[in-house]
Amino acid sequence: MPQSRPSASVVIDAPLETVWAVMMDVGAYGDWNPFCYRADCPTPPKVGDPIKLYVRWANGKTQTSPERISVVEPPYDDHGTTRATLAYVYEGLPSKLGLVKGTRLQRLAQVPGGPTTYDTVEEFSGPLVALAGPGRVAEGFQRHADALKLRSESR
Asked: pLDDT for 76-94, tens place per residue?
């Protein structure tokens, strides 16, 4: 079965707790996020919550993506490194038909006194993965990461 893993990362000069707070305030995504310009979801999201993402591609076209929150792991100590994770699973028609499956992971890590590292990846699988546009997803993820950096560092 074809697979793809579009990803992005950025180093953020802000405490992990600040970055996490920005990520968890999904109602404010429209204020700072050029890729996911709106998100309909309870704030803060919890596992099992539906989340509808409104994305804007680099060409200006927009699309909605129905997802479900699958992981909310608030900041915790992992042997001296602080970590946190937010993830959701794609629930659109292609997923229901078994054509394109997707799980997006967003992970934070910070060692004491260091910057916060943000990494995101979409774990795509299914026979129509190529139609999901992994390249354009990666570009959108990088715009999201860069905007998260700006938002978090300005707080």
From this structure: 999 999 999 999 999 999 9
> Which domains, from first to last, does the chain contain?
3-153 (3.30.530.20)
User: Mapped to the 3 state alphabet, what secondary structure does the chain carry?
Assistant: CCEECCEEEEEECCCHHHHHHHHHCHHHHHHHCCCEEEEECCCCCCCCCEEEEEEECCCCCEEEEEEEEEEEEEEEEECCEEEEEEEEEECCHHHHCCCCEEEEEEEEEECCCCCEEEEEEEEEECCCHHHHCHHHHHHHHHHHHHHHHHHHHCC
Q: Over the stretch 126-154, which tens digit does the pLDDT of each residue have?
A: 999 888 888 999 999 999 999 999 999 99
Distances from the Cα of 106 to the Cαs of 14, 42, 127, in angstroms?
Answer: 16, 18, 24
Task: Output the average pLDDT for the chain.
Answer: 95
- Residue 111 phi, psi dihedral angles, 5° rounding: -90, 155
Cβ neighbors of 38 (< 8 A, separation 6 or more) are: 29, 30, 53, 54
